[in-house]
């Protein structure tokens, strides 16, 4: 079943993500993708994440398609102007890529080419409008396309943004611009996420809760300090600490599995998006522990 | 200074406007540049602090009294902005002209000689729709439809020294009861409005209006 059909059928959908490497040796990422085959409903491919230059998202999406995966093309506005973005979207369409996740993109300042000229000719809300236009057979200037696209487009939202209100207003703009699904920034507090879902449920969109695997108490503290919009509750940090260094990863897997079970059993949202960040090989174990396999 | 090593004598031009406010091309800076050049064993044939250095015709007229000093100089050093430097290039078709400064941005002076960039001269003003705060300039990504995921307690992901422009816009529009406008999606910007090089004839425009 396609990702779109899975979401629309009401199935509890699971997506994960892989980040292409810097360089042409793709053995590791191919192995990760192989492990996730027939387990996840779709696999995100990041677009030069953290503004670090790597293999393009579109190329790896094509390899995933060839493997029988369903890829979600992450597309940021950092590196291409409106001509480049539209051209790549048409290119993705003819390769058979069906899903696109529209994002603004981390600033070059975060990455390994800090001297790069940031593009941001358009941004996430407008990129969603562009995809909607291409789906309707016209480009940004209203020119007719010779053959339209048929993308299932989504976006991201940060349920624990501070302040939350402008984030929620942007969330609504993204829905109006044509987003069908959302993959959220990492959440760790299910009760708080439930509050967000109460607002989100007013809209006809599918929400996948973002889950980042906690590998240690140190990582949790680091994210709390340095990653905007992520807040790991102290009780989880204590749990990781109590487990000790050797069992921290195991505990992180248990925490995520527990959250997944709760989100699914209580029908809090429409699915989950697992971000293992370097520990993609653990995803099958997490899914198994959560009762998804 | 590397560029100046082949020349022995210089005429210095400052500016009474921005460069004086910035403290980079006013009377005191002309004096210290003169001193620095002379300390290198070179000559300063004269200095001028024009009223408005980028006003080519006015500056040319002001320079008339310094005709001999200018003629005696191997090169001209302009201590204002890139615009002032290029006015001098126009005035001195046969003489090398060098800038002493990097021109950084159109700044608002928040305190004495402390500057913030608030306007990018983008050619298509949207301040009417963003609570009077410019996200094209104030947001490092120039976002037009609200904060990105990198905003953190009102700070920008690029630097904690930057206040998130979209949180500032939100707070202000809330205060001024304009949040309904905040909800409206802004269209992609028409960047052709800031295409380089720009020209403008406001005099002709006024005459056409009459």
Unreliable stretches covering 5 or more consecutive residues of chain B: none
Number of strands of chain B: 6
Largest sheet of chain A: 8 strands, parallel, barrel
How many DSSP H or I helices of chain B? 9
The fold-level CATH name of chain A is TIM Barrel
Task: Tell me what you see in this structure.
The complex is a heterodimer of chains A (293) and B (210). Chain A has helices spanning 3-8, 27-36, 57-67, 82-95, 124-135, 164-176, 190-200, 217-226, 234-265, 283-289, and strands at residues 13-18, 42-45, 71-76, 99-103, 152-157, 181-186, 206-212, 271-275. With 293 residues, chain A is of the alpha/beta class. In chain A, helix 2 links the parallel strand 1 and strand 2. Chain B is an alpha/beta fold and 210 residues long. Chain B has two domains: 2-99, Response regulator (Rossmann fold, 3-Layer(aba) Sandwich); 107-194, no CATH class. Classes of the chains: A alpha/beta (293), B alpha/beta (210). The A-B interface holds A 78, 82, 104, 106-107, 109-110, 118, 120-126, 129, 140, 156, 158, 161-163, 165-167, 169-170, 172-173, 176-177, 185, 228-229 and B 140-154, 157-159, 166-167, 170, 179, 182-183, 185, 187-188, 191.
Condensed summary:
Chain A has 293 residues and is an alpha/beta fold. Chain A has one domain: TIM Barrel (Alpha-Beta Barrel), CATH 3.20.20.
Structural key phrases:
heterodimer, A: 293 residues, alpha/beta, TIM Barrel, 10 helices, 43% helix, B: 210 residues, Rossmann fold, 2 domains, four-stranded parallel sheet, two-stranded antiparallel sheet
């Amino acid at each position: 079943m396609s990702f779109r059909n899975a979401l629309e059928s009401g199935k509890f959908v699971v997506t994960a993500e892989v980040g292409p490497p810097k360089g042409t040796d793709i053995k590791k990422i191919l192995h990760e993708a192989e492990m996730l085959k027939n387990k996840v409903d779709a696999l995100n491919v990041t677009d030069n994440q953290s503004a670090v230059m790597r293999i393009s998202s579109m190329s790896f999406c094509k390899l995933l398609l060839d493997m029988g995966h369903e890829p979600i093309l992450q597309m940021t506005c950092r590196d291409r102007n409106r001509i480049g973005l539209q051209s790549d979207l048409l290119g993705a369409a003819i390769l058979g890529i069906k899903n696109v996740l529209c994002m603004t993109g981390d600033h070059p300042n975060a990455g390994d080419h800090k001297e790069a000229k940031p593009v941001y000719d358009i941004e996430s809300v407008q990129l969603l409008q562009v995809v909607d236009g291409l789906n309707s057979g016209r480009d940004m200037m209203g020119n007719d396309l010779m053959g339209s696209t048929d993308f299932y487009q989504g976006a991201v939202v940060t349920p624990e943004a501070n302040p939350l209100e402008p984030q929620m207003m942007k969330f609504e703009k993204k829905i109006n611009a044509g987003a069908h699904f959302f993959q959220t920034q990492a959440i760790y507090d299910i009760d708080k996420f439930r509050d967000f879902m109460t607002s989100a449920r007013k809209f006809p969109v599918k929400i996948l809760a973002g889950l980042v695997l906690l590998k240690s108490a140190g990582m949790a503290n680091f994210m709390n300090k340095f990653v905007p919009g992520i807040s790991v509750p102290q009780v989880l940090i204590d749990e990781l600490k109590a487990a000790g260094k050797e069992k921290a990863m195991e505990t992180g897997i248990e925490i995520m599995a527990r959250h997944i079970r709760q989100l699914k059993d209580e029908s809090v949202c429409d699915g989950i998006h697992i971000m293992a960040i370097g520990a993609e090989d653990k995803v099958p174990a997490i899914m198994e522990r959560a009762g998804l396999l | 200074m590397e560029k100046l090593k082949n020349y022995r004598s210089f005429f210095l031009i400052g500016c009474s406007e921005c460069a004086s406010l910035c403290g980079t091309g006013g009377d005191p800076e002309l004096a210290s540049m003169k001193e620095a050049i002379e300390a290198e064993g070179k000559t300063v044939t004269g200095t001028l602090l024009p009223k408005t250095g980028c006003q080519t015709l006015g500056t040319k007229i002001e320079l008339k009294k310094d005709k001999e000093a200018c003629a005696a100089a191997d090169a001209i050093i302009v201590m204002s902005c890139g615009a002032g430097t290029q006015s001098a290039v126009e005035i001195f078709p046969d003489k090398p002209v060098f800038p002493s400064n990097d021109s950084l941005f159109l700044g608002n002076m928040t305190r004495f000689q402390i500057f913030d960039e608030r306007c990018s001269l983008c050619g298509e003003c949207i301040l009417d729709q963003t609570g009077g705060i410019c996200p094209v300039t104030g947001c490092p990504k120039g976002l037009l439809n609200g904060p990105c995921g990198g905003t953190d307690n009102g700070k920008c992901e690029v630097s904690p020294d930057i206040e998130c422009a979209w949180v500032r816009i939100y707070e202000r529009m809330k205060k001024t009861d304009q949040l309904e406008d905040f909800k409206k999606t802004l269209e992609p910007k028409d960047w052709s409005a800031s295409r380089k090089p720009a020209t403008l004839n406001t005099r002709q425009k006024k005459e056409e209006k009459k």
